[in-house]
Amino acid sequence: MTILRNSAVSEDPALGSIDHAVAAARECLAGAGLSAADVDVLMNVGVYRDANIVEPSNAALIQRELGMHLDYEPGSARPGFSLDLRNGACGVLNALQAANALLANGTAEHVLIVGSDAHPGGRADATDFPYATVGGAFLVTKGIDATTGLGAVHLQAAPRPDGAHPGVAGYLDLKAMGRDGARTITVEVADDFTERVIGVARTAVRNYLANHPEAAADSTVLVTNDPAPDFAATLAADFGFARHHQADTGSRNAGSSGLIIAYHQLIRSGAVREGDQLLLVAGGSGPTAGCVGYRVPVGGAG
Questions:
Q1: What's the rounded Cα separation, in Å, for the pair 102 and 161?
Q2: For 123, phi and psi rounded to 5 degrees?
């Protein structure tokens, strides 16, 4: 099965989104005793980007800064590939789903997932930008047994009538922004977003547990991003989980790397041991939520 071999977080508020992704990736690889040359596929799930860069893909820019397979090497079995995969706070779950498939069919041996967000104008303290300037990285590889590691990813979208607000909407009004477009972003959060994201997360967890009863034990540790205050505590109380951890990035939302940060903080706290069952849950704009079970493998968690 697929395992999270290592994780890392970058928190310097002076950095931009690319630098955060690169810093987290380097720390993650170094902690696993690997280099960028060992990575087969890089996936970037970041949403809010330096200068609102769309093209080239931010994954390509991160790949360049890492020095990951920059030149074509004839005969090399490791061509290296990178892509952006955007689905807000749930993008990391999509990336884990894709990594699981690439590892299972032998396309890749090491998949690196990075997520990071920053105000496009470098204003980490902007009061109208609700996201923390942070980044995170997962190194995903094959495990050594069939009983530990990641389960199947489940994603759940809340029903939304045409024209209804998605809960969180980040956009750039090009006509209004004019020449400041590269340094400006508008983020709208609906008044009822908290209730709606908890509601769809509740549905996602309920449906997941119905198909994966092994994750329903009260000893399971619930690990979540932070789309709303007490997100993890509310879900833990609803489903009877005795332990939970929610990403902590102060008063600002952890954004696209929220689930990575939550996992990393929990692992570094020493509260998780080999064989423990985790349930990783993320919720975000859409509203959309998703989850995946994870049994901590032999040798512990990275």
A1: 35
A2: -95, 80
Residues carrying CATH 3.40.47.10, the chain: 2-147, 151-157+191-296
* Residue owning tokens 């508008």: 186
Model-level pTM greater than 0.90?
yes
Looking at CATH, the fold of the domain delimited by 2-147 is given as: Peroxisomal Thiolase; Chain A, domain 1 (3.40.47)
Q: How far apart are CA 6 and CA 28, in angstroms?
A: 6
Angle CA 12–16–18, to nearest 5: 115
CATH topology (fold) of 151-157+191-296: Peroxisomal Thiolase; Chain A, domain 1 (3.40.47)
Q: 90 vs 24, 181, 293, CA distance in Å?
A: 19, 26, 15
| CA–CA dist 247, 164 (Å, integer) | 28
302: pLDDT strictly greater than 60: no
Q: Do 295 and 5 contact (CB within 8 A), yes or no?
A: no
Nearest to 77 by CA among 40, 110, 52: 40
Question: Residue 15 is encoded by which pair of tokens?
Answer: 């950095």
- pLDDT tens digits, one per residue of 138-159: 999 998 788 889 999 999 999 8
Average pLDDT, the chain: 93
